[in-house]
Request: fold
Amino acid sequence: METIYTPELAKITRIESITPSEKIFDISFVDKEVQENFNFLPGQFVELTVFGIGEAPFSIASNPNNKVKFQLCVRAIGNVSKALHNLKEGSKVGIRGPFGKGTFPYEKAKGHNVLAIAGGLGLAPLMSFLTYMIDFRDEYKNVMIIYGAVNPTNILYKNDISYWSTRDDIKVCVTVDNPDDKWTGEIGVCTKLIPRVDFKPEDTYTIVCGPPVMYKYVVAELEKKNFTDDKIFLSLERRMECGVGKCNHCHIGDKVTCVDGPVFSLWDIRNLKEAI
Amino acid sequence: MLYKILKKDDYRDFLTHLIENYEFLGPVKKDSATHDFVRIKNFDEVDTNYKRTTIAPAKKILYPSTEKLISYKIEGEIKVESTVNSSEKILFGIDACDVNGLNFLDKFFTSDFADEYYIVKREKLIVIGLDRMPSETNFSLSMGKEYAKDGFDLFLTDLGNKFFVRVGTYKGSSLLQKYAKTQDASEADFKDYNKYMEEYRKNFKSKVDINNFYDNFEIIYDDKELWDKVAKNCFSCGSCCLVCPTCFCFNVKDDMELNLKVGNRLREWDSCMIPDYGLVAGGHNFRPNKENRLKQRYRCKLKTFVDRFNTYACVGCGRCIETCMAKISIADDINLIKKEVSV
Reply:
């Protein structure tokens, strides 16, 4: 019997090592029909099983318009993610999802400016939104992507960033905390770049994802620029063990991150004590 | 709802029939202080005369402390299996606030995503409730949970020489028809029942002032001194959650069998009091201190589900108060918060 806890078999079709600690996994469901019917929205996540080890949540990092496969960008940091890094192309994993009612405002933001702010691995969840948005680029106004990484080696999605830089309808600013000798770009945390944003607050949707510590500093900078709470969206991390609102480890106030999130508007977050 | 009378003389026969024909779970004395719901094979094992609450709570029958969610074979082609099954059981002798505990879990496990493991067991469970005088720490009257409006098939109230029986479902009615000699409740029976209930409600010694808690909690939310005081003695042991009839948090873990060919994914009761409750991969802990965790528990019990289901997630059974080694009492703390805010 299929239950809410039963994973569907999927295959890792491609693995790309993009930094010393992060790999991108291309994944397709074994059952073609399941793959064709797998529709997700920007910001949603899946629960991935490494058989014999366990299950963990990962935000989907690829374009929702791609019906052949989806991608996860995973840092080897926990039991499951470390085991996942040891798998080879062709390995089978289990997938449940997509989960999360709270998604990035890919529809609402149409006809408006988009400001994306990512810290570290936080760029991965934003990729589902960014790749989707670029597919429908004409439907959005100005686009600016601010991305902060610890050092140049840890910059994710270097190819995508280069591609964005070549386009004159996307403004990309990458900054690193610890530059190396070759680094000629910005230095410092990503919040430093927010003052340079010249979008009109009432006409701009902001999406943010990064480590927990980053949010209040980003929010403070956005407030200085009079960005409003209803147009700022943050993807929150929590211990989402079950993905279906039952194990409760990811609750924040009356919300469970896995069902009601993981993306919340800043207005929602202000009503959830301890969310950021 | 149907109202019937079962004579005391016929009670033994009725239960004996049920014990013979069903997997029958009822309260049994475990030691001087503890009763538990276990399988009963003989009428004389049934002991409904317990003063303290039963440990563990009846939720264990629908939501076992450890439960297999899936199993998988990893040799050759990976195969995943999830088996959901349950047999018909009778749960006899749970009191009104515990029936309300099940009612809460019913709502919880069927909302958003329906949890098949719980639901299948619940559908197969015949619940026969039994009123009993409240234990010392029971404050369910204040929580509005001392009376079960629904969630049972039959509910018995001992009126001395007879039981007043509320029949909640067709299944309950069929059981009576098949296995018991009953008659319709008369006006006099109703009067006796009302008198009992009046007396029952007078017997609640532990009371809380839950009115306005919803708002008061916001007022004292950031009062660090208060929460430090409330949680000062907490051992973060999680006993309060394990004995709670409404707590539902669980951990998920995968275990391989010794042959390393078959893996089982289990869920196990967890507690929001345990230090690693909010720990994520990479080492960040979203709930690192015990004051915050206890505050969160009170919020979950007394506020979160007022927002989500318009009900408290605490039935006031008093088990956590009996069980807490640090003598932390949610009842005292509700009253303390009320007092702090009133000052």
User: Anything to note?
Assistant: The radius of gyration of chain A is 18 Å. Residues 75 and 201 of chain A are 34 Å apart (CA to CA). Chain A has a mean pLDDT of 96.
